[in-house]
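User: Before I run my own analysis I want an independent prediction to cross-check against. Here's the chain; please return only the structure tokens and, at the end, one sentence I can use as a sanity check.
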Amino acid sequence: MPVSESVMRRRDLVRGILVGALVLTACRRENSEKPSDKSGAEPPSARPEVVSRPAPGPSALREQLGIPAGVDMETQGPAPAVTPAAARKVKSHGVLGDLLEGDVYFFTAEAVKPCGEPVGNRVVVGAKVKIKAKSRLTFSPRELSLHSGGVTLNASVDPKRELEGCTPLLKVGWLKKDETVEGYVLFDVPAPEPKDLQLRYLPTRWGGASAIGVELPECVTCAR
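Assistant: Structure tokens:
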């Protein structure tokens, strides 16, 4: 019995659908067997070649880091920058006769002794000082003081209080660079004399200035 044309067309259609389904199944199976590339990793052929280089030796490492040869890298690390002021030791504390140095001046306490006669239970003590300016600097007796523990004795600021053996007085004024001034500063020291007296000098200066200290001998009210 002959097959009609419509039946043949339906058979061809079914056959085409089956073939397409088989091809699609084969493609899916092939893709599932391939490794996932979602990580974004490059294929081996696209990766750059890694070249292994030896670590630099101690000499090369010092040169790269700028470390001087005399510095121990393991314990000290790189040497700190040294300024001219830090390269030398500045003496800011001492005894009578020492040349002491502040940031803007040089200072020497040349002598300390009683002046005139005792007044009541007080002895007037004069400290002879010398100040040399590194730059423009004002000076005044009020910038000096005596200290003993928590006790502070301020200097006399009376420019007319001149006592025998303790002249000329240090007045109020200013110095140019490399100029020097000398004079006595007077203190009223009570009896009994405080122990471990120290003379301190702190200039009045815009922006501040460093202070110095001078350890005085025992019984400054006894010396003549």
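Sanity check: Helices lie at 5-33, 58-65, 84-87.
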